[in-house]
Fold each of these.
Amino acid sequence: MTQYRVSIVGTGYVGLSTAIGFAIKGYIVTTLTHDSEKATKINIGIPPFHEPQLQENLKKAVNKKLLKCTLNAAEAILNTDITFIATGTPSQSDGSIDLQYIEKSASEIGEALKKKKSYHLIVVKSTVVPGTTEKTVKPVIEKYSGKQCGVDFGLCMNPEFLRQGAAIHDTLHPDRIVIGEYDKKSGDTLEALFREFYSENTPPVLRTNLPTAELIKYASNAFLATKISFINAIATICEKTPGADVTMVARGMGLDKRIGSLFLNAGLGYGGSCFPKDVKALVAHSKNLGYSIKLLEEVESVNKAQPLKVIQFCKEFLGNLKGKNIAILGLAFKPDTDDMREARAIPIINQLLIEGANVTAYDPVAVPIAKTIFKNKIQYATSAISCLKNADCCIIVTEWDEFKKLKPEDFAESMRQSIVIDGRRIYSPKDFKDFKFAAIGLGH
Ligand code: UDX
């Protein structure tokens, strides 16, 4: 029997993966959403998005009555000891984050806490700029509950570092746990929960104050985004240097322990729901503090230019793209997810359409989402091979495993012209020596 009962506000990939993690470890967990359709699905074990290991574990958790989803905040709060806030913090037009969902969650939690007699711990998991937990979440909960933080309820900030496509794995095997605490009792309670959860496999636990924890999340994501833009800038130098290859440059750099080999894959740049939003938010936050963090502005501009390089490669091979058939392999912002937020496929396809090309795209899971974006402006294939049929040029946009298995002859046999552009460096240029072949970071 576990010591704590847990509730989670928000059923996006962070909220639901965290909830599944607790259920796998035998905790009783209640998730809260306002979306009744989503709640119905979750309660019968159907995940609302594609994420490896989610479906089978959700089904198990629901069958064992360890996980349920409710629309009623009081039910979630009154029957549990610790509540995680995992609602979204989307970007606003100036890059800063929109706190409306966080504020709404805090007010609902506060309202429910009014009726609670015992101590309750609230933990902000959502990515929020430094100062938000103390200056926004705390006063809203105090206002709606009539209770005092540090006396009647505790408050922590516990950033998550989950990767989409590996969210359940990362929940169960994190590199570190960061606990930002309002007071010692709050931090002790959250640390006790995590020590119970991970037992002898507890990773390093770093305890600090609330704004430092909030900044650790932004600094981590901004640093990883910087690593990606750095190698993409080096890729541009490679492209202008006959014989140079960014893959080998990255390998040579990565063997230095001070640099490390991860997040040095040159490609079409970073997309997804985190890096673009978090870099923007840190730039905007920094501006508000009177410091313009130009380093990150450059990280963003390298990232913006990166996907459009493949259009240039296409034109070098084909000249005018009007009426040319272009096959796009990969739509999701990365493999193992159907998420297309800030996916590199979007600016690439939009530009191809502006140039008058005919676009056919294939992705193992993201086609339904792509249809809501591109509607009938492009064709959708049901397999990689059928996507290549009659194509004048193929662009690899997402590095799904099934694309890595394609052989040069698969391209040659289906395409009208043997032109391949490897946007994710998944092929060996030697294998495509009989093709017109271009790749990010490959000198020519
Ligand atoms: C990221 C962080 O990794 C995670 O810790 C945080 O909690 C959320 O943001 P995620 O966005 O799911 O996770 O994916 P990630 O694997 O980090 O990739 C982000 C983007 O960077 C993808 O578009 C990916 O294609 C790109 N990328 C990643 C590269 O272009 N090169 C790399 O070497 C690594």
Note: The chain has a mean pLDDT of 97.
Amino acid sequence: MSDKYLQFANSKIGKPILSMLGLPKPPRLTREDQDNPHQLSDNLLCGISTAALYGTQIKQSLEATDLIFVDDNAQTCNLVFDASGVRSTEQASELYQFFHNHLSKLPRCGRVVIIGQQPNNISSTEHAIAQRGLVGFVKSIAKEIGRKGATANLIYLNGFGHKGLAAPLRFLLSAGCAYTNGQIINVTTPVTGVSSSYNWQQPLKGQSIVVTGAARGIGLAMSQVLARDGARVIGVDVPMAQEQLEKAMAEINGVALALDITAEDAPQKLIDCCTQYSKKLQGIVHNAGITRDKMLSRMSDEQWQLLVDINIGSVQRINQAILATDMLDQGGRIVGVASISGIAGNLGQSNYAYSKSAVIGMVDSMASSCVDRGITINAVAPGFIETKMTAAIPFATRQFGRRLCSLSQGGLPQDVAEVVGFFLSPQASGVNGNTVRVCGQNLMGA
Ligand code: NAD
């Protein structure tokens, strides 16, 4: 459903009227060009704190891009600051100084990335405190620049060098990060080796990836984005949606599998279908999900059971069956789809919030056992995304839901799909155990 307010706010008549009334003016966001994605070609200014760990590696991580590294005198530029060297709260003045001097140079839909060290793994208390402060800083900057359609995010590294840095840095500087704002991506030692020759334009070339709930909405956008990036998508959806699913998969040379994921034999049918095409599976995205909103006292058993079974029960059964084989070993990816409701809770959504919180629990609890097999597991937590699910929300609540974030608008299914594509890419093998919100920095649970 189109956001008429967003269109009005960006029209010649709308702009001055909204300014006069002091109402929010949601900016138009720049997104990946579907015909020519993953291009990085803006000016970039890098700041480096004293004794920073990654400063010299930022350039290496951004090789094979058309970025122009500029100096302090540049008029407009995106900003990366390596704050890993900030070892005390006094030294945080370097961070302040860099952004104080340069934040106004950020272009419309510009990007800010701060690089720090994961505080939990720092032995010095003073250093850990100084690094933890980066979270509040980046989230506040994200709020300041959101009205320009710009985003600010933080990468916490674990001290192993630039190989794990390249994928998150490139993603957070890209147009794919249009609706990912105020987030922290934790990067650990890559679970598999990171190849130095890498296809940044078609990162998923030759990969087989399952997407559930692929007939429409976010799952359809994921299928399209993953196919754009070179993957063969095995799209799954309920038999009732078979026609829609087959049409969608035909358009991207994918495979359609009409299957209710809650069926007892669904895990085996899924594995059988995948093995017809390849012995290995590079990824599975558990996107299928439903809502059945009701206040808890009026919620029927069926509304609870069915939802929990689709949103998390069947996900667990499918993971279990796949992990009983070696299909995903050495490079595979599992991606869950949570929700900000699973982080903040939501009125009338106790069933949904339970299931989506459980998806986050799945990521947290499985991350370390996955590492041993060279697999990563991560989740996205979408906020208000423009789909049939959110089009069903009553008008006033829908308007309110859209404006509740720093970017003052709902996201598009493509925005969630781009983050999923980043998780799935071979170079992101140091990104494990993360739940990244794709919510434009929604206030819910922030
Ligand atoms: P949607 O209703 O448009 O699409 C969901 C798809 O899942 C449908 O095609 C449906 O047929 C399929 N599906 C449902 N039950 C299934 C089953 N048993 N077996 C196989 N397929 C099944 O929803 P959407 O808005 O695209 O949401 C996709 C995911 O994103 C869901 O997990 C949802 O909870 C999550 N999410 C959406 C939003 C949002 O704002 N739209 C926000 C947060 C999270």
Note: The two ends are 26 Å apart (CA to CA).
Amino acid sequence: MNFAYTETQQLIRKTARKFAEEKLAPSSIERDEKQEFPHEAVKELGTLGFMGMMVPEKWGGSGLDTTSYVLAVEEISRVDASCGVIMSVNNSLVCYGINEYGTDDQKKRYLCDLAAGKKLGAFALSEPEAGSDASNQRTVAVRDGDCYVLNGTKNWTTNGSTADIVLVMAATDKSKGAKGISTFIVEKGTPGFSVAKKETKLGIRSSDTVSLSFVDCRIPVANRIGEEGEGFKFAMTTLDGGRIGIAAQALGIAQACLDASISYSKERKAFDQPIATFQAIRFKLADMSTNIEAARMLTLNVCMLKDAGQPFGQEAAMAKLFASKVSVQSALEAIQIHGGYGYVREYLVERYLRDAKITEIYEGTSEIQRIVIARSLLK
Ligand code: CAA
């Protein structure tokens, strides 16, 4: 394995870090408090070419590899994990899904603007009764001439109220279970499509998480991705790639925890010396750093497999499972190192814990990742 970054990858990392520190850091606390979506920052991420990083230039993207994408998501999430997930959903679920499975007409109509960051996308799979059990879709799409009529509710949709374009999974033939699900591209403003409840969340509070409602919403057949019945496989293969983005987001949060803990432990004095001189603190830092590096290796490994065209679902699940665990553990340790200061809003580490927790839940809980890994081992 060769993890030496190319010049392009190093430049992406540097650009992402500079953008995060200069443009995101000053407003991140306030946006978290107010649950405010970073509209301007997302536009600028588009200008930087960070919203469709793996999409070919022909379709408005940056034509980069998965490693570059992971480096950018990590750096953005190191400062603002809300921005990290906004970026991750647009890149690795929406743009990837259309680029990989869409028609040229769909790419022209939707992908070009999504990849260039002129429009924002969302991915609507989860429902009130279909979270981990994703094939249990209650949203239905009934064919009526040149359209499908969509009825149902989606939950936990990241970017949901801001998105211009939503990829919606719905049952076209309930009797066929997972093989009776199809995927549709739904535009904001389509009659019958509305944003329902906005969630008030523990973490990633400046990202946008909502329920979506579809009532007799007519979607042209030309907006179906792939054939009827291919929607579940579409969702599963797209989520395999999405999980790499969430592993990178988790890594970014974990790295932020380590960075904050190193600088705090050098400054903070107890018993007349910096707490960094105490073995109890030094061992925590050593363990955090070792775990983060291991999570990074798993994440870079899956990038290489994906870019080499190898199967990568199991490795993506491993990277997400491990990186999300490391993220939560690192946040807990960072709070412990900061003591009382770690527990208050003024210091960022309490937010890191709130942000880290979601990485063990969305795009497949840790329990689902273990199912995916075990199935792959035992097949
Ligand atoms: N790639 C290709 N095909 C796949 C696949 C994959 N990764 N996973 C499953 N399939 C195929 C299976 O091979 C099977 O097809 P065949 O019958 O032809 O073999 C078909 O799909 C059905 O698969 P299963 O029988 O395994 O389906 P299941 O109902 O047992 O579910 C599961 C499997 C792994 C539990 C799945 O439901 C799952 O991943 N659940 C979690 C869903 C999830 O991650 N949700 C996240 C929501 S999106 C989100 O969070 C976005 C956001 O906004 C941040």
Note: The chain has ten helices and ten strands.
Amino acid sequence: MAALKAEEQNHLQLMEREEMDAEDDLFEAIEKLINQGINAGDVKKLQDAGIYTCNGLMMFTKKHLTGIKGLSEAKVDKICEAAEKIVNYGYITGSDALLKRKSVIRITTGSQALDELLGGGIETSAITEAFGEFRSGKTQLAHTLCVSTQLPTQMHGGNGKVAYIDTEGTFRPDRIVPIAERFGMDPGAVLDNIIYARAYTYEHQYNLLLGLAAKMSEEPYRLLIVDSVIALFRVDFTGRGELAERQQKLAQMLSRLIKIAEEFNVAVYMTNQVIADPGGGMFISDPKKPAGGHVLARAATIRLMFRKGKGEQRVCKVFDAPNLPEAEAVFQITSGGIADAKD
Ligand code: GTP
Ligand code: MG
């Protein structure tokens, strides 16, 4: 990345080039279908439907694919057969699975204590959810990750670009400047490597996700932020009878997020709101739980609960993760972003 200062850049350039070569093997462009006898027009139809890689193709059902205008069942069969010659869609050995896990990168949060809690940082190919009360640091962590993702992997970064979907209008590009400076990076270059969109409806939010596949198949993205994932759903579905429909649309969007994470080896960081939990128990004075119900709970790989501590300190608790203990870390919000607590 061009964001790092000169001397460090020279030092790391060679290793980064090697990294990028390795990346090339991660996903196969959908155009490769042409070499397998699929005509370019049909490949274009897949791209128009948001499918840019052969790896991505297998994440759609045949029913979905035949729903694409101009693709008959026979054509879809031919396309799937051709794609299977390019990507292995079946079983792999445990050793290969381990190798695949090794392409997973952990991106630093800016706080060593928080990184340790997360087993090294936020993980690519997974969804990290942060929920918690207002001003607990969810958006500040998003801003810090915007910068740290661009660090080389040797410096606990992701050596990649960032996509930011903002549903609450709380992205502050001016906050990126001191955070970039803290990490010794050029703020202008860091800002250039972030693509940002403000979403106004849940449909808009979904369409923005669809548009990302094209960008991510062309350039190395390592982080997608959705802050917050649920706010627009709570605005757009207000009627009592609308909850089932809301959950169905939410599930659809979350499934899109999971696909992006896995297809492009991207870390998805999404924030969530908290709602009152009347069933939280009589010994908890102000019981709260994450919004989004089971649909959201199932989608997140790692769920983190944020709360305020004293002063600028914040506490993060692992709420639900398959391979992490339920523990806590204290961090601090500073002008340079998330950092370790001072005392
Ligand atoms: P909601 O979106 O309202 O639910 O909250 P959130 O969890 O996203 O909170 P956010 O990450 O926006 O954290 C806001 C907190 O960060 C506030 O307490 C601010 O005072 C603090 N903060 C923001 N910028 C700075 C800064 O430059 N320096 C310091 N020290 N604190 C900051
Ligand atoms: Mg926020």
Note: Residues 274 and 290 are 4 Å apart (CA to CA).
